[in-house]
Amino acid sequence: MASAANILLVDDHEVNLELLEAYLELSGIPMNIYKAYTCAEAYKCIEQVSLDLILLDVMLPDGSGYDVCRHLKGFRLYQNIPVIILTALNDKQSMLEGLKAGADEFLTKPVDSHELVLRVKNLLKMKTIANDLDERYRQLHNELAIATELQKSFLPQKVPVYAGLDITVLYKPSSFIGGDFYDFLPIDAQHLGVLICDVKGHGVASAMITATIKFQLHDLEGYYREPAALLTQLNKRLEQFFSSTANDYFVTAFYGVLNIETWNFCYSSAGHNSPCLSDWDEVSFLENEQGLPLGVFSQTAYDQQQVTLRPGQQLFLYTDGIFELELQGKAARSCSSLQDLFAGQEGITLKNILQLQRQIEQYAANQQIADDINYITIRIDEEEASCVKSF
Amino acid sequence: MCQVILEKHTEYLTVILQGELILGCTSEVKEKVKNYAEENQIYHMLIDLSQVSFMDSSGLGALIAWFKMANQHQGKVIFCGFTDYVRKIVGYAKLDKIFTIADTRAKAEELLRG
């Protein structure tokens, strides 16, 4: 309450209203008093005035006080307004009814002035705390919204376009801010670097860490061609950063460099889920045995491997947020990698991966999600390749 | 929810974790273990995960935090009681390369006493 509390008295008897008003005025609490004789008048006042407390009689000409209370408590906007219901002496049934409707306190009639004032004071104190919390929540909400926008600005604004290459990205952060991050690093006309990583943890801290990664990357341009060297450097810097700030944070990452002419793909992994390589015949995974997550140990050694992609093959890079979804009929959280998801199934091909992508897309479009969802697909055109061959 | 039972032995501390080691309850458990080690000035630890039913990345983060803390104080950490699930999660993050994992609690105790 800024200064005076806004209190609404609801009773169809003028005498009762005047008595309540007199008691409250004597209490010395700074207040503005509003009066309503019917449910309809009460609703009107609730909408027009920012109320701090309501004293509510049960029997009203156009309905019951319980209805008013129930109605009020059903709205996020009004549910923090404390309600005192006035009941007849020892009427247990009315009290139960009132509790069901969400009333905060009861006063039995005839109302004792001391009890009235004490209950009102207590509830107003609680309302002040609730208001304060609401205000902080709103501030936090605003700040999160700003941070979300900021974080979006760290992500690539567009997907790179190369002849013969089809690249798609799906990125959806969980409830506001995510710890997933990806980037395309255009090295030269012939080489494209692709990074995907997952900062373990959620919320503002994770988002700030993704920002740190973005800035560190900017500084490490000389290493873009060498996946193992880039991860080694990134690890050293993040380890230093975490050891002075957030000891239990770590980042899984996968970085690869694609040669756009030879389709050679050189990659390194820091504890990240193995990307999946698939075509119409089979799937395989880009395993990389080495490599702890980034930021755990400054001395971690990373190594790199190479694979030559074939026309028609698709590379699927992802973060583990997708396993918070129910995929392919398997319960959420029952898997932690695509290998797990497809375990025991024969004949998995690109078709299954495309189905999976569609399923993830649908989730991402339709609902609030528990973890960030992020995947990148890089596919080498079949048509383009056949043209090359015919030359 | 998750809980932790802490026991002090002459050479080491036993950390028994129970329930779901997930975001929301992990940070409290993490601090408890850290404070206990600091109070007792003992950084050799046996961490028993046999009663952990689920663990997410914040749980992994806690394991890393304890491991790092112990390392900073020349302490030895032995993990035991890995369920298949925990083994997989730890394996994916390649943490099994740096963690010492004993098959049984008895083996873990032996390693810490030895």
Concise structural overview:
The complex is a heterodimer of chains A (391) and B (114). Chain A is α+β, with helices and mostly antiparallel strands and 391 residues long. Chain A has helices at 14-27, 39-48, 65-73, 92-101, 113-154, 203-219, 227-244, 338-341, 350-366, 382-390, and strands spanning 5-10, 31-36, 53-57, 59-60, 63-64, 83-88, 105-109, 165-172, 180-188, 191-199, 251-259, 264-270, 276-278, 283-285, 305-308, 314-318, 373-380.
Task: Report on this structure.
The complex is a heterodimer of chains A (391) and B (114). In chain A, α1 (14-27) crosses α5 (113-154) and α2 packs parallel to α3 (65-73). The longest helix of chain A has 42 residues, at 113-154. Chain A has two domains: 5-143, Rossmann fold; 155-390, PPM-type phosphatase domain (Phosphatase 2c, domain 1), CATH 3.60.40.10. Helices cover 38% and strands 25% of the residues of chain A. Chain A is built from ten helices and 17 strands. In chain A, the strands form four sheets. Chain A has a five-stranded parallel β-sheet with strand order 2-1-3-6-7, with helices on both faces. Chain A has a five-stranded antiparallel β-sheet with strand order 8-17-16-13-14. In chain A, strands 9-10-11-12-15 form a five-stranded antiparallel β-sheet. Chain A is α+β, with helices and mostly antiparallel strands and 391 residues long. Chain A starts with a strand and ends with a helix. Chain B has 114 residues and is α/β, with parallel strands linked by helices. Helices cover 43% and strands 30% of the residues of chain B. In chain B, strands 1-2-3-4-5 form a five-stranded mixed β-sheet, sandwiched between helices. In chain B, α2 (57-72) links the parallel β3 (45-55) and β4 (77-80). In chain B, α1 packs parallel to α2. The longest helix of chain B has 16 residues, at 57-72. The termini of chain B are far apart. The relative contact order of chain B is 0.17. The model of chain B has no long low-confidence stretch (mean pLDDT 91). The chains are: A alpha+beta (391), B alpha/beta (114). Chains A and B meet through loops of A and α2 and α3 of B.
